[in-house]
Amino acid sequence: MRVFRQNRPVLQLACSSVALLCASAYAQETPLSSTVDQRIEALQRLVAEQGRQIEALRQQVAEQAGRQPGGANQEAPANERTENPAMASNQPADGADGTQSIRVGVAPSAEVQPPKVAQLFDQPGILTPPGHYVLEPSVQYGYSSSNRVALVGYTVIPALLIGLIDVREVKRNVTTAALAARWGLTNRLEAEVKVPYVYRSDSTVSREIFTGTASDRAFNSSGMSVGDIEFAARYQLNQPKGNFPFMIGSLRFKSRTGKDPFEVVTDCVTRCIGNTTGTGLPLELPTGSGFYSLQTGLTWLLPSDPAVFFGSFSYTHNFGRDNVHRMVLGGQSELIGTIKPGGVLGVNFGMGLALNERSTFSMGVDLNSIARTRQNGAPVASSVRTQLASLLLGYSYRVDPKTTVNVSVAAGLTPDTPNLTLTVRIPVSF
After folding, report:
1. Cα distance between residue 336 and residue 270, in whole Å
2. What is the pLDDT of residues 90-122, one digit of tens each?
């Protein structure tokens, strides 16, 4: 019975159709004495009655569909749902015929910009828009330790040494607080200035060479001052299409505003070369390199949802200095001559992965090769090419549309690289 009630309009329509067919057959079988006008009039009455029944059935079907859950939304034509401005804005409106529109669906939420890649290196991944600027306070902590064993003497047999052994264990802690500001000059060009403040502390445990003591001596030194101020400019070289990456060229200039290694006093009575007293270590640590440098680089970014691949190539040229002197105890000055640090060739690459709409995780590798230092045109005897390598892990969290917190950790992969480097950056857009 339930099935019969649900299909009642269909059955009535079928019965009406059968009645119409029977009437047509009856009209064809009437005697020839019936006039043509009478047959036409009978057919017109049947068609009119059929139309009234069809209209009544249509109203019943519409009422039955309106009582079913979601029936009105399913029966509404697609063009009516999309073209009605009142329904598109999810606001009820009265039509011209007095009917009230029904709210359809939920308006989509505003599109959220995907989070930026956690910043692992000094090159920002996205340029600053024109007319805007970014202030980025940061704190970086680095720790490194090294052991050195020097044998001064000669061996009679491999197990017997005649002379002295100099053993040193050095532990270094460097904390750098910096404030960087970036300005967007055009759609493809931005400028940056960075002012660091450095605090360093070294602890050296050793036995002084050429002495007969059997106990270790701890030598502590520290230094704190403004570091080397940096200026940089970056330019987007292309507008990529398809799978081609973004290419960004950069130019960075580092000054020597920090206290350089030749300004601090060295622990020597007269001269460190051939001196039998003193450690030869600085009594106060420098906060700058002591040399001007210019770095050129090329950064590439390849978005591949949900990941972003990135990397860069760079070369740093260190400018030499002439007539360099260093200070020793007693206010004496020792001439060193012309010093030319070696150039630095750097390569880094990595990948950033979006975890959700607010956070990303990044990992990368940073490689640097430092050439030998030259003194008076010749390589320093104790200087060798140094290889630095670090494994970096980073995390980025977008606090709000204008503020992001970036945290990165670097682990040294070679003995000359700092053991641990922890960096926290908080870029704020204006």
Report:
1. 14
2. 444 444 444 455 555 555 444 433 345 566 666
HEC sequence for 211-234: CCCCCCEEEEEEEEEECCCEEEEE
Whose tokens are 């969290």? That residue is 397
Q: Which amino acid is at 7?
A: N
Instruction: Name 212's Cβ contacts closer than 8 Å, sequence gap at least 6.
Output: none
pLDDT, tens digit, 9 for 90 and up, residues 298-349? 999 988 878 889 999 999 999 999 998 888 777 778 888 899 999 999 999 9
CA distance 162 to 309: 57
- Cα angle, residue 171 at apex, residues 194 and 223 outer, rounded to 5°: 45
Instruction: Find where tokens 């019969």 sit.
Output: 4
Spatial separation of the C-alpha atoms in residues 41 and 392, rounded to whole Å: 94
Question: Hey, how many other C-beta atoms are within 10 angstroms of the C-beta on 45?
Answer: 11
Residue 258 one-letter amino acid: G
Distance of CA 26 to the CA centre of its chain: 85
The kind and range of the H/E element at 161 are strand 160-184
Cα gap 296→250, rounded to integer Å: 6
Residue 202 — φ and ψ, nearest 5°? -120, 145
Strands 265-266 and 321-328, sheet pairing: parallel
- In which residue are the tokens 């036409």 written? 40
pTM of the model: 0.66
Answer whether the bond into residue 415 is a cis peptide, omega within 30°: no
The CA radius of gyration of the chain, in Å to the nearest whole number, is 42
Q: What are phi and psi of 362, to 5 degrees?
A: -135, 150
How high is the pLDDT of residue 341?
92
CA distance 321 to 290: 9
